[in-house]
What does this fold into?
Amino acid sequence: MPEHAHDQASLPRLPIERIEAIPARIPTIRPHHLAFATVAAMDVVIVKVTAGGVVGFGEAATIGGPRWGEESPEGIAAIVTQYLAEPMLGQDAAQLNAAEARIGRAVRGNAFAKSALSMALHDAVARARGLSLAALLGGAQAESLPIAWTLASGDTGRDIEEGEAMLAARRHRDFKVKIGAHAPEDDIAHVAALARAFAGRATLRVDVNQAWDEATAARALPALAEAGVAMAEQPVAGWNLAAMARLQRANPRLSIMGDEGIATPQDALRHAMEGACMAMALKPAKHGGVAGTRAVAAIARAAGLGLYGGTMLEGTIGTLGALQLYATLGDFAWGTELFGPLLLRDSLATAAPEYRDFAIHLPRGPGIGTDLDADKLAHYRTDRPRTLHTV
Ligand SMILES: O=C(O)C[C@H]1C=CC(=O)O1
Ligand SMILES: [Mn+2]
It folds into this structure.
């Protein structure tokens, strides 16, 4: 037997003993206005995997329930406990490739649920081996990644104040503006006012979250480019690759980014082959976990497209899981937007991500780099009455 095979074989198995999924709701620091919904709280599902006596954590977040995507917190928790747990119990978590393949076969679709379980398995294995998740995946290529903020207060003046505060704190200098809920002229005026306010000090991008049809996008995108917007995320429906391709060809000064339309590696391949975008937003939740995210990133790179480290506005657990994975992937032409924990009023984790000098910094320590705060989870969980403490 070759020596490396012997070394691998000598590491203890990590049989999966327990899988839990706990839904929780955490209020945001302000209402977050998107084209399709305004959210004042984030609904997340925390997945806990016990393997070889070690517990790992993953998280799935939904924006307004099944509105951004098709999955709801209730559905995610049910898929994990009713359909994914049974085939995974007793399996060796350390065989991560086999585990992800088994998760993939057990249930069709349901990428958010699969991703939370994938992250929890990776976290458990990394902890058991005494490695960070990035180290388990072959090592980080960066110790920090640039971090954008989303301006979505619903008011131009408040967005400018918020952006000024972020610049003064040296937290963010890339702003993504959520548009698509109002008349395009009003959205363009809003973005132009922000562009004037931050000229030369911050970059501006927009996210339309599929709200426009092609005719609206064809009129609006040149005006946005004129105002100084460098990137426009999902201006039309995710299925409308032909429109994406025509819009991208007509607006070469703008990078059109695919988001909702790019979940599977096949989606990514089609976007690349049809010239439907110049940039792709990664989100482990869309891609069903670690393997899917790596596959989509590889296709983007092979096609020469810019990568963006996206978020579903997860709390600290999901955010650090994504950060550990993104850090292994190399260059992100558009940076990341892993700011979820900053939008939430409280955290289910014992550690907080480090945001400093316009970047999010990779934590030290095993696994994703934080533990779950059991008391906070008990307080915010939505699947049973809160425990009332008296002093
Ligand atoms: O990109 C999305 O569509 C979802 C999300 C990411 C940042 C944000 O504010 O919303
Ligand atoms: Mn988006």
